[in-house]
Specification:
By secondary structure, this protein is α+β, with helices and mostly antiparallel strands. Helix content is about 25%, strand content about 30%. Helix 6 (about 410-415) packs across helix 7.
Length: about 500
């Protein structure tokens, strides 16, 4: 019997990001426990967003067409999220007239909002799916502070950027074009923002399952993410990456100011393999005891569920997320390609094809993707982090057995068929860290991933990360991160 072939790597998502390290660290300010103000001005084909009246947060977007249509408050934060966002107040004006001026703390009952809004629920963003008209009082409520919250039940929308059903409160009345908006809100990890410029009962973009891409229709969706990004999706003009107007991405154009965490913040990848091609970079990533350079023209690779700390002044990169049944590497890598110009051409072409809805684009996209992988991981020069074959089985074993409390250096040395002393020596020389410390780092990385991604309790996380004693896990976690597990969950808006 012929052995069954393993499936080839599959692309999940490609997007571009532009990060600037800032001394004011806007990241810290965008927190679910603090009030924020989002200012949005739309004038024909230009939209300007500003957060908390900070000039440094100002971001401009270009629209492919002048905006004209309905206006809605939007949320996809469901009742299961304890860090649920909320709307505090909103003031909307157009053509010199005030269309809406609401302080929700003075609203006696959410039923009073039926005089202003219709409510639409989107259980899917697939093509030709319109919002379902639903009773406003079934999906919105006032919390103990009198702020407007969305309480719809959560069901995953099957694509990678909007994690729950989306609910709109659409303002009744004539469509509007240019407008000025000031909105006070409490942030959460999911989206609390505004939709404008599209027909009532519609959303600014849909997800094409065949090409796995986002297709803009009418209007825009604007919001501030928990990381500090001012984000707009939908009716956007082509940008400096020469992407078509149908390209929906988190951050547009290098000219846009965007912010990332300070060095003390721990970030993480999720369930996909991640390649970052650094168009421009100055700094490093701190990960698993390594300092991975973030420099122009190099590639950073992160395996799934990897925690890292950014320590750079600028990082403009193109991210490629993919899934594969056979890992490319069990540890993060920094790779300097032999032919950087060729790689850049390939990545630019890959992005063009990824956002191209023509027949066959998806297959052409994968062909270039496999070519890029071949360039990077087939003995590419500059790959100083390649794991020696002698200890590679041990490294893979660690990754697959983090939950085993009996995982030991002695077992790993036996797996490598060498003495424990020699194993420790080779491992330290190759990985820059002792095997015991490496195992501990990987367990803490995995614990961070579980804490901020799933609703496990502390003892469950400890068990899944190979800690037989919960108290020891808590002590070790705090020593590694500076926070107890509970403090860590409370510190970051994305955590459950």
């Amino acid at each position: 019997m012929q052995p069954q072939a393993k499936p080839l790597p599959q692309l999940v998502e490609i997007y571009a990001e532009n990060h600037l390290q800032q001394t004011d660290a806007l990241f810290y300010n965008v927190d679910a426990r603090r009030p924020h103000t989002l200012s949005l001005s739309v004038a024909r084909q230009t939209a300007v967003m500003e957060l908390d009246r900070l000039q440094s947060s100002r971001a401009e977007f270009r629209l492919a067409r002048p905006s004209f249509g309905s206006f809605s408050l939007a949320s996809n934060s469901g009742a299961s999220n304890k860090n649920r966002g909320s709307f505090r107040s909103i003031r909307l004006s157009a053509k010199g007239q005030t269309l809406l001026d609401l302080n929700f703390e003075t609203v006696g009952s959410v039923r009073e909002l039926e005089a202003y809004f219709d409510c639409y629920l989107f259980s899917s963003l697939r093509q030709n799916t319109h919002g379902q008209r639903v009773p406003l009082t079934d999906f919105w409520a006032l919390n103990d502070q009198g702020h407007l919250i969305c309480v719809q039940p959560t069901h995953p929308v099957r694509h990678s950027t909007d994690y729950e059903d989306i609910c709109l409160l659409t303002l009744r009345g004539e469509p509007i074009g240019d407008f000025e908006l000031s909105m006070d809100f409490d942030q959460c990890w999911q989206r609390y923002g505004v939709v404008f410029g599209c027909p009532a009962g519609c959303f600014p973009y849909f997800y094409n399952e065949n090409t796995r891409s986002y297709v803009a229709v009418e209007g825009c969706f604007a919001y501030a993410e928990a990381e500090g990004y001012r984000t707009m999706r939908g009716n956007l003009a082509p940008d400096s990456y020469d992407q078509p107007a149908t390209c929906i991405r988190r951050v547009l154009r290098p000219a846009l100011p965007s912010f990332t965490a300070a060095e003390s913040i721990v970030m993480h990848t999720h369930g996909q393999h991640t390649l970052l091609y650094h168009v421009e970079g100055n700094g490093k990533y701190l990960c698993a005891g390594q300092a991975l350079p973030c420099t122009s023209g190099c590639i950073t690779y992160f395996p799934p569920c990897t925690a890292y700390q950014p320590a750079y002044t600028v990082d403009k990169h193109i991210a490629i997320l993919f899934e594969t049944a056979h890992g490319l590497s069990d540890v993060p890598l920094s790779i300097l390609p032999q032919d950087t110009e060729r790689l850049q051409r390939s990545i630019n072409k890959l992005m063009d094809l990824y956002y191209n809805n023509q027949l066959g684009s998806w297959y052409k996209c994968h062909a270039i993707f496999y070519e890029i992988l071949s360039q990077l991981f087939d003995g590419a020069p500059g790959d100083s982090n390649k794991i020696p074959e002698l200890i590679a089985p041990a490294v893979r074993y660690i990754q697959n057995h983090l939950s085993d409390p009996a995982l030991s250096v002695a077992r790993l040395a036996k797996l490598s068929n060498i003495s424990e002393v020699y194993f420790r020596q080779v491992f330290k020389e190759s990985m820059g860290i002792t095997p015991k410390k490496y195992i501990l780092n990987k367990r803490i990385d995995y614990a961070v991933f579980l804490l901020v991604t799933f609703n496990y309790n502390i003892s469950e996380v400890a068990e899944k990360c190979g800690f037989a004693d919960t108290k020891y896990f808590i002590t070790t976690f705090k020593r590694a991160t500076g926070f107890s597990p509970r403090q860590y969950v409370a510190q970051y808006p994305g955590a459950f």
